[in-house]
Amino acid sequence: MSSRSQTAPNLADTIVKVQRNQWEKERRKRAAKCLLCEHELQNGTKEDEVKAHFVDRHAEEIEAQELQISDLVANTLSLLKPRTPGPDQPPASTPHQTTSSDKKIDPTATGTDGGDKQPNKATTSSRAQRKEKERDEKAKRSKARGSTHDVDFHRDTSQKGGKLWNPGDDAATSSRAGLKPSAENPRPSGPTHTNTFDPPAPNFDNVEDMIKQPETRPISQEQLVAEVKGIYAGLVMVESKCIEVDNAQSSTTEGATKLNNDQWQALIALHRTLLHEHHDFFLASQHPSASPALRRLAMPTFEDTWIECLGDLGRYRMAIEDDDIKDREVWTAVSRHWYSKASDKAPTTGRLYHHLAILARPNALQQLFFYTKSLCVPIPFLSARESIMTLFEPHLNGSPSRLPEIEAAFVRANGILFSGRNTDQFESSVNEFIENLDFHISRKTKRWMDSGYFIGIALSCAILEYGSEANPIMQAIKPGRGDDADTRMDGTEHLLSQKSSDAARLAARTHNVVLRRFGDPNVIPYFHTTLTFLFHLSHYPSSTAQLQNQVPWKLISLLLNTLSESCTSFETIESEDFPQPDKGTARPLPEDFAQRGLLWADRYYPDDFFTSCKIDDEEKYLEVPSMEQERAERCLWLGCRLAAAGQSLTYSKESRQFGVVSEFDIEITDVPSIPEGASGDIEIDDAAACS
User: Fold this and answer.
1) DSSP character for 349?
2) Which DSSP category does 614 fall into?
3) Which residue range or ranges hold the DNA/RNA-binding domain (predicted)?
4) What pLDDT is stored for residue 32 in this prediction?
5) 196 Cβ contact list (under 8 Å, min separation 6)
């Protein structure tokens, strides 16, 4: 090691010691003054003495200015306490240590004509020795004298007398100048600037830190399977506990259902644990090392659950979007998409239709359709009986409504049938609906196609008393009743209730208006859903005999004959097989999706009817021109199936005409005539519709 590298550290240590000794000497000589007066406090004054001084002399001033005695005492003691730099810290002014790159070597030229210049080794060596000797002498002098002047070390002499800054300088100066703390200008507890012996922090703005990839340990298939089994066992345990707590809570009396804050927190924590268990199970089963069988445990086995959860999240987000209508509509569409997707995978689950009913606002007819459907599927959602009242209450209470009067009357009539309230308004509501129905259909034209099957399905649900277990037809058609479900029963058990009879009369009066619109393709979706319901009931003649008498069979036969004039394949409608296109895959009609999952639709559609054709959600309820002919063939096929039952309709393969049994062969008045060559289409103007 060279003598230069040994000299620089020694010189720095010497300067630190000299400045430290000088600072301590100056500090011992100086006494501090009170922060609020000119009283001088000698070095070594104790804390109790300082506190007593402030209490005795400045109590009123401290109280008036809302000062803290503890802060005043601490600041005063800081003026008396020596502040020395740490042993490892360099002094405030560090010597400039030159490096080999800082030195400028004066080379001697060798050669001529611009040749390379090389330093003279002898000259450089002697010069370096002289500089090193001078540096050693200066270092020796610096130990004896506190001030030196050298090009390699220059100390700032702006502070007179070599006095360093200390924490009490600012406070003492302001005190001597007569400045006192106040509420507007409180005295700072320390200096406004800080001097430190630490070197400045490096600037890392332009440095990109590299983060190592987390270490992963391989896991065997056996270990992963054991881990998944353990997680699933915990999931089942927590889920059972959640069900137990929820059932216990729901079974308590109404007065004791309120939970305190601690109970709510415990209940939330329990369900949060269940959510975490589901998440862990999902992650473990989808591990990169998982086998295909292990991956199938959560996907697609739980795919239906995940999809419904996405709908729930969208619905919750929609519910809190009160400020921005556009955002609310966006999240409504997102939630509706996932619930529709979930209902395609579980069409018999009523809970999903209940959620879709909530999202259907403000379309009252669509809400009524979804609410009633949620109660008339194999897995009904009984809580919908409470939710549906949010739709009925405004109409039962007479609150102002933005709905068209005819739709409001229909919703009100269903509300009376469902709740049993305001029964005195039922006839007036039905009359208002029926009297304006024909004109309403003619005005809405194609837009009534959706409303038609909404109304048709809602009427069928009303006849079943919205899924009531006490309804005799409901008892007969509900799955799991066995082969003897239609056996004739004694007494009044076989009779329809008053609600069911009123609903049947409402349906019959609606049929008499809608089915008279011969040649109007916009009423055929309504006709299609009505025939589907009647086709299913034909399998239970004993339980539905009372209802059969209120169906306008003669009018149905006339409308079927109108549709048969445009039929291109009578072999298709006369066959017992469900109508299918000759080429390609059958595309479900919009009302097919609406009827899917209902109790009376299982006998109608083939098992793979909805799964064989992939259709986007946006296109499910899209009406295309080719559907008109297909819908007519479906209605004719259902008419042939009803005629084959021999209960109401008849069909002649020779004349290819429909009729009715003698019991229902009545005269129909005011039937519009069909001009020849018109293909069954009749234009009905608004004036005729109003009459």
Assistant:
1) B
2) -
3) 336-446
4) 67
5) none
Main-chain dihedrals φ then ψ at residue 43, nearest 5 degrees: -60, 135
40 contact partners, CB below 8 Å, separation of at least 6: 31, 32, 33, 34
Residues 6 or more apart whose CB falls under 8 angstroms from that of 607 comprise none
pLDDT digits (tens, 9 = 90+) for 275-303: 898 888 888 888 888 888 888 887 776 78
The confidence score (pLDDT) of residue 78 equals: 72
The alpha carbon torsion through 341, 343, 344, 348 (nearest 10 deg) reads 170
pLDDT band for position 56 (cuts 50, 70, 90): confident
H or E element at residue 293: helix 292-295
Three-state SS annotation for 460-505: HHHHCCCCCCCCHHHHHHCCCCCHHHHCCCCHHHHCCCHHHHHHHH
Domain boundaries, the chain: 45-76, 221-245+259-326, 346-476+496-664
Determine contact, residues 604/529, Cβ cutoff 8 Å: no
pTM listed for this prediction: 0.61
Mind listing the pLDDT tens digit for each residue in 559-614? 999 999 888 888 888 888 888 887 777 789 999 999 999 999 988 998 888 887 77
User: Residue 461: is it exposed, middle or buried by C-beta count within 10 angstroms (0-12/13-18/19+)?
Assistant: buried
Summarised one tens digit per residue, pLDDT across range 117-158 is 444 444 445 555 555 555 555 544 444 444 444 444 344 444
Separation between Cα atoms, residue 340 and residue 353, nearest integer Å = 9
Average pLDDT over residues 535-541: 89
CA distance 326 to 333: 11
